[in-house]
Amino acid sequence: MKILEGLYYAKSHEWLRIEDGEAFVGISDFAQHELGDIVFVDLPSVGDEFDAQDSFGAVESVKAASDIYMPVSGVILAVNEMLEESPELINEDAYENWIIKIKITDETDIEVLMNSVQYEEHIQEEE
Amino acid sequence: MDGLKKTPLYASHIRLRAKMVEFGGWEMPIQYSNITEEHQAVRNGVGLFDVSHMGEVIIKGEDAEKFINYLITNDVKLLGDNEIQYAMMCYENGGVVDDLLVYRKGVNHYLLIINAGNIEKDLAWIYQVAKETKMNISISDESPITAEVALQGPSAEILLQEHVNIKLSELPFFTFAEKVSLFGAECLISRTGYTGEDGFEIYADIGNIETIWNKLLDYGSQYGILPCGLGSRDTLRFEANLPLYGHEITESISPLEAGYGFCVKLDKDDFKGKAALKSQKENGLKRRIVGFELVDKGIARADYIVTDENDQEIGHVTTGYKSPTLDKSLGLALISSEYAGIGKAIYIQIRNKTLKATIVSRKFLNKNYKKQEDQK
Predict the structure, then answer these.
(1) Is residue B115 part of a domain?
(2) Residues of B in contact with A55 (CB under 8 A)
(3) Which of A42, A61, A63 is closest, CB to CB, to B351?
(4) Residue B21 within any structural domain of the chain
(5) Do B173 and B48 fall into the same domain?
(6) Do B233 and B301 fall within a single domain?
(7) In chain A, what are the domain boundaries?
(8) B351/A37 Cβ within 8 A
(9) B321 contacts in A (CB within 8 Å)?
(10) Which tens digit of pLDDT belongs to each residue from A6-44?
């Protein structure tokens, strides 16, 4: 199970990477492994605005749809369009293949997220 | 997962690192490797399923044929020895108690195969009908002592033939052979399945099933065999338009509404549900199950609401998948009959979005059965 250092993690298994005032959001390697074969990613539209913990889309395996949640409040700046044709990219590398790029609208939301060490503990508790 | 029933192959599933889930009160493997690979193994080669959770009930006695014909919708009189029939048991109102296979072992001697999650309910119903009819029969639940595996796919015959003393080419679709020796165990083998492919279902005593399971996996490796879980079992049966109890057929969806009228013989003597089903047929079905393909991007899942173009609710999705074989987003939905018709548009409500779908034939995939020329 791969857990990257330097990312923020939500309890619902999304990661957040902050780069030059913008942020990328994806799901963790643990989450992609639990889901199995990803066959569809339901993406939001650019410009959509969400609060932290709002569902902004879904990642779907053969068997089921799983909602994906905003780790922080923000506005959608871009969606990873490669996932429309190749959703399995998330299975191949869950950290390289981000799902949305956002502008964070409430920086204080970051404080409640976990670092990689805390996230590893969180997974062990869930298992 | 405390309190769940386990099949005799439970330890094998754990050893194979299967992902286990609850299904109908049982702890069952949903997948071993991944659902798509297991699905493709069955479509293109061979796969092995543990279906020991299924129920087996023996009914015999001088009124057995008469009793079963009163219990089920199909006509058991059409069966000869060693032949099998698909049927449903209905309540008086035409709702489905369960769907089942009826094996004729001999004159007035039948084996019924029922769904795992319905065993207790079905037995209660069968005993109630028996009490009501006062016929001379005996009912015996063999489920606790019977295990079952399903060997499915185009390579199933060649693999199994190497290990049995009967000629499988002479065992057509929906027939069975008894007392077949397989790896030292005495089995009942039928040419049946729930995948739309050729294949066999193998019934044995619970003490012998692990040897059969392990040896089929060992000898099957040259054909690319994979152990397959309930995940691929469901995608396979869905593509082949085979119903799943609780989805396409339920206590409130009749076999006619579900589109399985071929197993409802309204011209035979009285049977449970006959009057209600006859009236449904004569008055026209108010609802029916249709197949659909999503035009917009998404995947329809069971219980999603179906609407018309004016957002009026007209029904619900019973099963939906991104079909692994056809790579299309397909589904089955129970909708008001006025909206049914191939080529018509319906709308599926998926997470606050309205996605357009087109009604298509439910024969998503051609079945690959080994029928005799005169079999229908």
Answers:
(1) no
(2) 351
(3) A42
(4) yes
(5) yes
(6) no
(7) 8-107
(8) no
(9) 62
(10) 999 999 999 999 998 899 999 999 999 999 899 999 999
The Cα of A63 is separated from the nearest Cα of chain B by a number of Å equal to 7
Residue B116 one-letter amino acid: A
- Which ipTM was obtained for this model? 0.88
> What is residue B376's predicted lDDT score, i.e. its pLDDT?
45
Nearest to B199 by CA among B217, B220, B172, B219: B172
Tokens representing A51? 């609060």
Is the CA virtual torsion A74, A80, A81, A86 positive or negative? negative
- The CATH number of the domain holding residue B209 is 3.30.1360.120
**B366 phi, psi to nearest 5 deg:** -75, 130
CB B260 within 8 A of CB B88: yes
Residues 293-312 of B with CB under 8 A from A: 297-299, 301
Whether residues B222 and B300 fall in one domain: no
Pick the CATH number of A8-107 from 2.40.50.100, 2.40.10.120, 3.30.590.20, 1.10.8.640: 2.40.50.100
Which pTM was predicted? 0.94
Residue of chain B minimizing CA distance to A42: B298
| Touching A: B residues 17-36, CB under 8 Å | 19, 30-31, 34-36
pLDDT tens profile B56-101: 999 999 999 999 999 999 999 999 999 999 999 999 999 999 999 9
Here the CATH number for the domain that contains residue B332 is 2.40.30.110
Using CA coordinates, name the residue in chain B closest to A35: B34
pLDDT for the residue B372? 74
The Cβ of residue B199 has, within 10 Å, a number of other Cβ atoms equal to 30
Please give the interface size between A and B, counted as residue pairs whose CB atoms are below 8 Å apart: 41
Q: What is the mean predicted confidence (pLDDT) over B233-252?
A: 98
pLDDT digits over A38-61, tens only? 999 999 999 999 999 999 999 999
Is the Cβ of A40 closer than 8 Å to some Cβ of chain B? yes
Q: Are B322 and A58 an interchain contact pair (Cβ–Cβ within 8 Å)?
A: no
Q: Is residue B375 predicted with pLDDT exceeding 60? A: no
- Is B109 inside any structural domain? no
Residues B49, B148, single domain; the answer is yes
What is the span of the domain harbouring residue B224? 10-53+144-239
- Among A36, A42, A61, whose Cβ lies nearest the Cβ of B298? A42
**C-alpha–C-alpha distance, residues A12 and A31, integer Å:** 9
E strand segments, B257-352: 287-294, 305-307, 313-322, 329-336, 345-350
Whole-angstrom distance, CA of residue B1 vs CA of residue B91: 33
Cross-chain Cβ contact A67/B351 below 8 Å: yes
Chain A residues touching residue B39 (CB < 8 angstroms): 62
Residue finishing a domain among B239, B267, B297: B239
Domain count, chain B: 2
- Give the position of tokens 């942020």: A23
Same domain, B27 and B164: yes
**Residue from the list B297, B298, B324 with its beta carbon closest to the beta carbon of A62:** B324
On average, the pLDDT of chain B sits at 96
Q: Residue B325 phi/psi, 5° resolution?
A: -80, -40
